[in-house]
């Protein structure tokens, strides 16, 4: 687990273009999709590589960063788009765990806290409510805004649970 890490961009797609390969922000002479990525590197080192994804799979791989990245992994599995991220853990246990060797790389691509936040966690993880959200320090004006913040915090709470799994 990395700590003190800063994303080079404010959105996932741009970040992933430089995150898992030899590409970098300053040098764009070779397109990111022509660079070796983490799947290639670990496979070359003798690892079994697995990509488990809980986000929507784009049918046109040429337009989807995650499809292009995952193509370099030995096994790729997409869960049903819209499922909670627990689906990744369940899929890992049902389909991957028995295949693990002595050297493995398993990448989990979560939905995490993408909008709509209220859809990112099961009801049992609705720990925070609008009454738990203060107005101070936030740019919120009413209880509807507070509910959005509470849903976001609950999505983080749920993601923390998934990461512990």
UniProtKB/TrEMBL annotation:
What Gene Ontology terms describe where this protein resides (cellular component)?
plasma membrane
Tell me the leader sequence span. none
- Any idea where the Sulfatase N-terminal domain is? 1-164
Offer an example of a GO molecular function term for this protein.
hydrolase activity
Assigned keywords, A-Z: Hydrolase, Transferase
- What SUPFAM superfamilies does its record include? Alkaline phosphatase-like
Query: What Pfam families does the record tag this protein with?
Result: Sulfatase
InterPro entries associated with the record: Alkaline_phosphatase_core_sf (IPR017850), PEA_transferase (IPR040423), Sulfatase_N (IPR000917)
GO terms for biological process, alphabetical: lipopolysaccharide core region biosynthetic process
**Per its record, how is this protein called by name?**
Sulfatase-like hydrolase/transferase
User: What species is given as this protein's source?
Assistant: Helicobacter mehlei
